[in-house]
Amino acid sequence: MKQSFYNIFIPDKNKVLCFNSFSNSYVIISPQAYMSLQNEGVESLAKSHSKTFEALVNSGFIIDDSIDQLDIIRNENKKERISPEIDYLMVYPTQNCNLKCWYCYETHVLNSKMSKEVLENTKNYITNLCQKSTNRILRLTFFGGEPFLYYKDITRWRN
User: In the UniProt record, does the keyword Metal-binding occur (predicted)?
Assistant: First the structure.
């Protein structure tokens, strides 16, 4: 047995919050159990804190040595990309940006924005896609300079 690579531990005064981003689960354990796990390993935790060990195994914090979580993620990603049940759509409403992040290297085109007609056509396309594919998943992403400069236009699409 080994620890999941996706464990995040947040020590507090008299407890440790454990979050596993792979299984999307959390557990609260004692600082003693946490120290045992970190300093002495999984086997020691199993002996000294058996209930905590069991909870961590059941929640995906401790996994079998043979499990390659990165490989699982890659396979799921590959399946999802070629899945006939999932549609991906990226909408790029603008190249404008109001954040001026110091690390950004993008050349922003001022006053660039989808016209009302293009926005409406895009919304209609998405609506039609959803109506004729009721058993499919739509992964809709907004991208661009800063799409939320046009928050009202984008949020109208939820309905």
Answer: yes
Taking CB atoms within 8 Å and a gap of at least 24, the contacts of 19-28 are: 20/59, 20/60, 20/61, 22/60, 22/69, 22/73, 23/59, 23/60, 23/61, 25/59, 25/60, 25/61, 26/59, 27/55, 27/56, 27/59, 27/61
Q: What pairs with residue 86 in β-bridges?
A: 137
Question: Is-contact 134 85, C-beta < 8 A?
Answer: no
- Which among 159, 145, 155 has a CA at the least distance from the CA of 113? 145
To the question of pTM greater than 0.70 for the whole model, the response is: no
Over residues 16-56, the pLDDT tens digits come to 999 999 999 999 999 999 999 999 999 999 999 999 999 99
Classify 155 as helix, strand or coil: helix
* Closest C-alpha among 134, 145, 124, 143 to residue 87: 134
The rounded distance, in Å, linking the Cα atoms of 136 and 157 is 18
Beta-carbon contacts of 99 under 8 Å, excluding residues fewer than 6 positions away, are 146
